[in-house]
Write a structure and sequence with these properties.
The protein is of the alpha+beta class. It is 17% helix and 41% strand. It contains three helices and twelve strands; from the N terminus they run αβββββββββββαβα. The strands form two sheets. Strands 3, 4, 5, 6, 7, 8, 10 and 11 form an eight-stranded antiparallel β-sheet that branches. Strands 2-1-12-9 form a four-stranded antiparallel β-sheet. Strand 6 and strand 7 form a beta hairpin. The longest helix is centred in the N-terminal third of the chain and has 22 residues. The N and C termini lie far apart (68 Å).
Length: 187
Amino acid sequence: MVFPLRRLKFTIWFLLALSCFAFIFFVPIQTVEVKVANSLWLRIPVSVGGRFETLYVHSVQKTPVIDEYVISCGRIWQWQEKVKSHNAGLPFEVPRNGKFIASDEWFYFRGGRFNWNVFFLRVGNHILGKNVITFRRGFIDNAAGARTYKLFAIVQGKKLAVGLSPITIAMSLFSKESLVILPNMVE
């Protein structure tokens, strides 16, 4: 049986379009998820190299501590920790496989190869902790620039699980949860 050339071209283009559709809808997209009491609070798609940071005020020193994270190889890597002093409960030793940099304003502890699929964050309040999370470069949420959430005002006193989770566009279409930021703020 011989296919006419026109029919063969149509079949090839149809299969190409079907392959593209399947690729777009069924290839997993990495997302950063923040859960409160096993309930999804926030989900943002992220590209490799996406960066975010957590900030809190140290309870003893009353000084800000900023932890910066990078998404790479399907893990959340702590890129650096910035502190303003070396006193009680703050880092003072250079991490293994890392380096220490001092500037006029901050002490930087860079590297160390600390990485997680999920890590936990205890949120304080407007007096203790003042926890904030900021999503920067590499997050696919149509926001220009950084997006900051004052966790101490939104999820005060809660334990958060921050982790990576793959999701496909098809899964997001048929689930109750969105592919981007969920509006359900927790009490």
